[in-house]
C-alpha cells in the first residue's frame, strides 16, 4: 500500500490548510490518483488495521438498495449511526417533534419502529447510496437499477464506455442524510479483465480512504466473478483530498511503520449473482496488519 502512504506524505508536504464544515480544519490537496493491481493482492491497508467487517457489511447494504441503518446495527456496524441520528434530529427540528436520545433511537431503528415524524422510520437516511445505485428515480415514476444495468452491459457489451454508476442525484442530494462522497464509478473490460475507477469528491484520507479502497476493490472482485472475468485494476481518483488537523500526529505514527505483504481475498465461487453474496462468502487470507491507530472523529 505504498500508494496510500505516498498520498499521506504528499498531503503533509504539499497540502494547504483550509477550513471545513466540521470546524476542525484540514490540510489537503486537490486531485490525486492511485492505482491498485488486484492481481498483486487485496489492497487492505497493513500499516493499521482496517475494519473489514464494516467494509463488507456496508457494501452488501449498498447492493441491497437499503437506506436504513437497521441491517448495519444488527450486524455490529455503527459507521452510519452518527449521520442517521443527526439527520433524525434535523427532521425533528423541522417538524417540531421532541427527539429521543441516541440509545433509544438506535434501539428503535433495530426494532423497525415508525417515528412521530410523519413518513419517517427510525434509522432512515433518505435516498443515499443504495437507493441511487438500485432505484434511481425517473420522471415517469419508474426507477433505474444502475447496478443490474452495469452488470448487464459488462456481459453483453463489455467494450461499452457507458458502464457507469452514479450516486450524485442533483435533484435529491440536498435531502440526503449525507451527500455522497464517492459519487461515480466506471467499469472497464479489456483482455478478459475487469477494472473499476472511482471518482471521490471528498476524501477523509486518514479514516475514510483506506475503507473506500477496500470497498471498491471488493466490489470489483465480486463483479468480475459474476461476469466471468479476472480482476484487473482499481483506480481511485480523488478530488478534495484532506487530512483533518487533529489526525496529523496519527499520520506520523502510521508513516513510521513498514508496510506488510498484502492479504488475499477469497470469494465463494458458487455465487453467480452480485445480489446473492452474504457476509460468509468472503475469506481474507494472510492479513497481518499493524495495530489500529485511534483517531478523533470529526463531524
UniProtKB/TrEMBL annotation:
Task: Give the residues annotated as coiled coil.
Answer: none
UniProt keyword list: Cytoplasm, Methyltransferase, Nucleotide biosynthesis, Transferase
Which Pfam family is one of this chain's hits?
A: Thymidylat_synt
Q: Which GO terms describe its biological process?
A: dTMP biosynthetic process; dTTP biosynthetic process; methylation; modified amino acid metabolic process
Q: Which residues bind dUMP?
A: 21, 161-162, 201-204, 212, 242-244
Specify where it is mainly localized. cytoplasm
Q: Which residues form the Thymidylate synthase/dCMP hydroxymethylase domain?
A: 2-298
Q: Tell me where on the tree of life, at the top rank, the source sits.
A: Bacteria
Q: Which InterPro entries match?
A: Thymidate_synth/dCMP_Mease, Thymidate_synth/dCMP_Mease_dom, Thymidate_synth/dCMP_Mease_sf, Thymidylate_synthase, Thymidylate_synthase_AS
- Where is the catalytic site? 181
List the catalytic activities from the record: dUMP + (6R)-5,10-methylene-5,6,7,8-tetrahydrofolate = 7,8-dihydrofolate + dTMP
Q: Is Transferase there in the keyword field?
A: yes
Which SUPFAM superfamilies does the record match to this protein?
Answer: Thymidylate synthase/dCMP hydroxymethylase
Q: List locations, semicolon-separated.
A: Cytoplasm
GO CC terms of this entry = cytosol
Q: Does the keyword Transferase apply?
A: yes
Which GO molecular function, any one, fits this protein according to its record?
thymidylate synthase activity
Which pathway does it serve? Pyrimidine metabolism; dTTP biosynthesis
Listed EC numbers: 2.1.1.45
Q: Where does (6R)-5,10-methylene-5,6,7,8-tetrahydrofolate bind?
A: 204, 298
Subunit organization: Homodimer.
| Family annotation (PANTHER family) | THYMIDYLATE SYNTHASE, THYMIDYLATE SYNTHASE 1
Q: What NCBIfam families does the entry give?
A: PRK01827.1-2, thym_sym
Q: What does this protein do?
A: Catalyzes the reductive methylation of 2'-deoxyuridine-5'-monophosphate (dUMP) to 2'-deoxythymidine-5'-monophosphate (dTMP) while utilizing 5,10-methylenetetrahydrofolate (mTHF) as the methyl donor and reductant in the reaction, yielding dihydrofolate (DHF) as a by-product. This enzymatic reaction provides an intracellular de novo source of dTMP, an essential precursor for DNA biosynthesis.
Q: Which family does it belong to?
A: Belongs to the thymidylate synthase family. Bacterial-type ThyA subfamily.
Name this polypeptide is given? Thymidylate synthase
Q: Which organism does this record belong to?
A: Alistipes finegoldii
Name of the coding gene: thyA
